[in-house]
Design goal:
- The longest helix has 18 residues, at 43-60.
- The relative contact order is 0.05.
- This protein has five helices and no strands.
- With 88 residues, the chain is mainly alpha-helical.
- Helix 2 crosses helix 3.
Length: 88
Amino acid sequence: MRSYVSAKTATAILDLKQRLSRLSGSDRRMASAFLLRLKHESPTGRREATRTMKAMDAGGKIRLKDLGKLLDHPHQLLRKFTRALAGN
């Protein structure tokens, strides 16, 4: 699904990003936390979280000891997570 944004909206987003980049590190972290909370509280964010949790329940989980083994071979870890994200 493609998302189309008007030129006016794109300009506003660019302006917002530029303003955020001028904030101090702690203010950027606070703004980031606020935006993340807004995302999680939105209907779209809740649907995305639900979809992710269902995917995890369907077998996308990994045990800590298995993760430790995979970390010895990062390419295997990347392959597993790529397949999980693709829904395979």
